[in-house]
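Write out this protein's structure.
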Amino acid sequence: MSVTDVDLSAFDTPGRGRGLLDVFRRRYLLRLLVRKGTATRYRNSVLGWTWSYVKPGVQFFVYFFIIGIVLNAHRDVQYFPVYLFSGLILVNFFNEAFGNATTAIVENRALVRKIYLPRELFPVSAIIVALIHFLPQAAILLVIVVILGWVPTLTSVAIAVAGLALMATFALGLGMMFGAVNVRFRDAQNFVEIIRMVAIWSTPTIYTWGLMRDVLPQWAFNIYFSNPLAIGVEMYHEAFWAPVIDGTAVWPPNALWNIVAAVTLSLLTVVVGQLMFRHFERSFAQDL
């Protein structure tokens, strides 16, 4: 039998994959990477997983004291602690997911240099690890709002899941973009740190979106409120804060178009991120 008679249809060409679609085919590898990420997070740490509560707790009290007490924001927003914390934990999730996805390839350089596997596994596993670390903070929020009278409904749960999915999608897209560039140009990490620093201030978390509407022209406000981060945070306000105050979160007049724009931007970010990732991954091993 000659070589040309051998059926090669069951074999994959080395180094050539289907991008994010391969992540679903390599679920076992994905589980291993997620397990590795969670196991090494607090290795040799005395407090361990307690840090998942301590750090957001300290951040919350700092913002609550400065913004809520010193600047009197708590007088203008009912149950301001719930308003603040429900948005804060979502922004924290984005920052961790985005940051981890950006450094995922570099931190796994040993695997990237030695064997071939779908490189998208690394940023995707980073997003999942961030989601696992998000759960303790979400649990605290649930306990607080239930004590204050929040009753879960299908609508509120769906809105919360949608907000989290929007944030995760946006973080994945940006993470693949900057993660791919970061392998060759480490300046990308500095840009990521700037974006993460600005994230909390670019969302209606420590203030209401009405304050931004009062100081920005309409076109600029539409850009601001079409930010997936802003829409995700407002979804969490709708899901957790609004029921506590026995009402619904007030949205801007064109909010539906803002939501459509935010979802479109998140999906477009993933597409562009995948294209950039596939372009740069050809030289990952050499650049590392």
